[in-house]
Amino acid sequence: MRIIYLLLLVLLANGSGYAQQAGPKTVTGDFRHLPFGQFVHELEIQTDYRFYYDAAQLDTFRVSVQVREQPVATVLERAFRNTPFHFAFGHERWVFITTAPAPDLQLPRAFFRPVGSPPDALAATPEATAPAAAPGRSRYVSAAEYQVHEIGLGGGSGPVTLAGHIKELKSGEPVVGATIFSESPSVGTSTDQFGFYSLTLPAGRYTLKVRSVGSKNTQRQVILKGSGRLEIEVEEDITTLKEVVIEGEKDKNVSGMQMGLEKLDIKTMRQVPTAFGETDILRVVLTLPGVKSVGEGSTGLNVRGGNTDQNLILFNDMTIYNPSHLFGFFSAFNPDILQGVELYKSAIPAKYGGRLSSVLDISSREGNKKKFSGAGGIGPLTSRLTLEGPIIKDKSSFLIGGRASYSDWLLRRLSNKAFQRSSAAFSDLSAHLSHEINEKNTVYATGYLSTDRFRLASDTTYQYLNKTASLKWRHNFNNQLYGVLTGAYTHYDYDITSEQNPVNASRLQYAINQTSGRADFSYFPNPKHSLDFGVSTLLYQVQPGALRPLGEESLIRPNVLAREQALESALYLSDRIDLTQRLSVSLGLRYSLYHALGPRTVYEYAPGESRTESTILDTVRYAAGKVLATYHGPEYRVSARYSLSDNASVKFSYNRTRQYISQLTNTASVSPADTWKLSDANIRPQVGDQVSVGYYRNFKSNTIETSVETYYKSLRDFVDYKSGAVLLLNPHIETDIVNARGKAYGVELMVKKLTGKLNGWISYTYSRALVRINAGTPADQINGGTYYPSNFDKPHDVTLIGNYRFSRRFSTSLNFTYSTGRPITLPIAKYYAGNSLRVFYSDRNAYRVPDYLRADFALNIEGNHKVKKLAHSSWTLGVYNLTGRQNPYSIYFKSENGQIKGYKLSIFGRPIPTLTYNFKF
Amino acid sequence: MKMSLVFHRLSWLGVLVLAWLAGSCVEPYAPAIVSAPPSYLVVDGFLNARGSTTIRLSRTTAVASKTAPPAETKAKLFIEQENGPRYPLAETAAGTYVSATLTFDAARRYRLLIATQRGQDYASDFVAVKLSVPVDEVSWKPETDGVRVFVSTHDDTRASQYYRWEYEQTWEIRPPYQPLIEYDNALNELRDIRVRYPLSCWVSDQSNRILISKTTPLAKDVVSNFRVQTLSPDSPLLAVRYSILVRQHVLTQAEYGYWELLRRNTESIGTLFDPQPAQVVGNISNLRNPDDLALGFVGAHSTTEQRLFIAQPELPRGWGRRSGYESCVPPDTVYVTPPKTELADVPAKLKSSFGNPGFLPIDRVYSDMGVVIAYIAKAKDCVDCRERGSAVRPSFW
Known about the structure:
The complex is a heterodimer. Chain A is mainly beta. In chain A, 6% of the residues lie in helices and 52% in strands. In chain A, strand 30 and strand 31 (506-526) form a beta hairpin. The longest helix of chain A is centred in the N-terminal third of the chain and has 11 residues, at 36-46. The relative contact order of chain A is 0.09. By secondary structure, chain B is mainly beta. Chain B is elongated. Among the domains of chain B are: 41-124 and 278-298, Immunoglobulin-like, CATH 2.60.40; 132-251 and 301-329 and 384-397, no CATH class. The interface between A and B is large, with 82 and 77 residues.
């Protein structure tokens, strides 16, 4: 008979707190009517025996015995005299108490722990009470849940800090965004990107609950006597692997400080049907309220009325300048390596700066630290493969993912000659290494490379490349303070070659390098404050454009614009203060300082006149390293939350942002030939202010989240262009640029259901984004200097992302999206000039294209759910644009054979079925 | 709707991936906008520094309007030299104003003055005179997409730099029929033809695209093989003999900018990465009311030109085979004997067939017995080449 004594037991010393006591000790005491549990506890304190018994059998048993310096055996013999209980000693000072005669005690040790779990992974001691393990749970985790972890050495009074990591049991990867909280008192926190948490509580005993998306709920019992560490491992919740969850710190919506923050995890993103069956991070971000783009072929994000260049796109803390492939039809991130994405639309943390409208923080997973595994997928346009595994088990891991298109191969199979002459190829590669040097120090390295090369039915080849790397060192000074030192390098370039006519054959190149270093610290001095502070500095080096002849015959005169460089530095401090149980505020200040550096030649223009080549007054030469322009200013980051009740709160935020680099683009959509321009003596930095207020309420025990957010934003000095501006290879670009002012306001309503068979979200947004250009002379003004709608001003927007799970293996997703058509400049009159009819255009953006409406559908089929098998696979069958509506991408008018004809271009003008196969091993 | 991208089955690693990359489609689109379109003055033409100036005045009209934009008549126009004399233009046709032959002083600046019938005064900005360098060569070359016509020029002094070209193309056409008979309307009968239809005609038209190029990015002021025209291998223009006259204008930077903007606005908008349209106005303003726009750019320059001929035999084998009269073959047959037509019905048949001047008899069809049993005939467009062009041989031909 197997032993069903369930056990738990007695204590040794806390590994870090107590020294292991050598040899058996004697017991002294006067125990009167003591519950058996307390009796065992007392014995465990006085000796180093561990007791294993069935609490159900012994819970009514009370011990009355008086002993003085007696061995344990004697004490037990006296205690159990005339009772049905027997005891037996095993190895390692284990004591088993049973009702049956003493059992055979030569069991393998591993019986009490699942194979593979590290011995003493928990540096804490377990105590009494042990119910049966929940079905389907790892015995290891179950055991850990019922152990009582004694933390610290202290006397057990005053606030103490508990810190540690929450990691996934199997892979050892940190769990980001997991919440850990005590219900009474209600104190909680969530893990950061390293899976690190720090919780400050009064000394005492607590049950800490741990919740995170994709993991089983768990808890830990702790007795806090002093500050200490507790490493927590959680199990992946395999059965709900494909459940749509748009993030889930369940009451975060109401209780969190953040507003205007959208979090998506990769599981959610996989469910959203896309045009080519590729999981596309940017495309999913575009379904969020407050995020728009000019058209469906573009991944340029317009967040709350901001331009596409006003988003700080970070991939593991590296700035990505072009996050898309193939004109913006795909985003340039391999979904298999991603952990998730956070989009800050307002209340941008003081840590981030340099862009006006939003921060899109994309993070990769850490590799599996325990075993080698992989994942991949085969879709209609690309295939991808990801491998990961430990380098040193439990210490370091690698994660490497690649993706490549085979669209070149497809294009050559098309009947259309023009397509056969085209080529389009792209690929991306990411690698991530992490190494835990010791408990206090961890280093991370990330590299990323994405390339694009395409030639579309012409003689012009476009190529562009993102190349970035970062190195991060994280050091825990103590439980209350940790710091992260990051060095990052970002390179982006493009190269356009044209070689049909040997006389004009040329190559146009652009490049930007960004080298940055930063130190960030988080400090948790007491339960009421959590501080973040740090410094950063960033060196930009730009090659604004170089046109060079190609081949011997080319007559192209080399035109190489002078390099530009600038240094952007910042200091920040923010403090989150819990003033009362209900009111929390976060006060942050970032101060940024920008120097445009020589060598440069700077033109000075006649003041008050439209800048043209003829109004140049003087030319000033600055030597290398000389500062030619300095801009600086504070950036305020303030937010507050007031809880109206347990499930309702109001939040407020105000932030100012400054941006010292602008993207020069004159086209409706972001184009691969767009360049980035640094602020200098003639181009001022952009400044934005946003005020935002929201009401949040959760229903049905936090399973339904609702929110209303409203914002007003004003933008100053962002760049717009004079009619017919020349943006490329223009040595005096300031003559074609005008400073624009913008204002944007809106209301975003959202209802999310996080759990259950039916889940997803629905949002409605009313928003306006307006621009005014009235600087300079009347000739420079647009629409007479009045406010006009920006290119992406789409007032009404309704989005539904829904998922219904029929069973563990089948689920369906439905997207629905409606928005007002985007503004357009229409021809209002025609006339005859140059032997052809010409059109005269309206005021800029005075009309709108027809409304946009689209529904998508997907069916996800999982392979069987055996936890252990060679490879887990899934199929996704999707139909993009289910109704086949021909949504206009572009409306344009052309003079053809002397006639003016209007055309509507739809990119995805019919239902597009796709099938994708994914696997994981 | 055009399916641009369709692909079928592909097999990859044993997995059958069936997908359609469904394509973009382009449809005509007509927005219901602008009930009261503006009526701005439009000035089209340039001040010819070496010859007679022709200026056309018109008004803008609604985009949807079916009629041509209205001409602006009875205006008073003058060419004015800065601090100098004025030269009048006279209206030769409705809205077309022509000056005497003039020779401008290349060192002075000129402008155009317009006083409309409605009492509004307009003037272009004073502009410098640009004299055109000669056209070096107009050449052609067969390429995969057809015959390409190129222009080349250069300016050793680097003074030109900004170029615009227009062309006038002329081609010979030969109809497939040469009628031997004609219909006598009065007698309702067919007789031998008295005045033969022409064997050949010549058709002309003008460029309607904006052809511009600048040499500022080049080390030398050289335009090498700028493509002005492409004719597909089966273009009827190449059926017999084709001629193109390329006229070159040298522009100022400002005038070049105007044409470039106009071209961008109306010829290259619609691809994903073309710039947004902008209002293109020009260098003409209302002297009293600045809100009243006038469209157009009046520059002052001379022109140079060169002509090229391409005869069908010079083309690659198989090119220039389409005459443009393919739809005219075979001819129709009008039967005038039983069983197709009873004899009693012949007069009515002749009347109904040939009473319409758009349908011409070509020849008689005889039976073995030598009796006329039918006439072959065809639409006038297939027979009389003057329907498509002029029978007058151009002087340069």
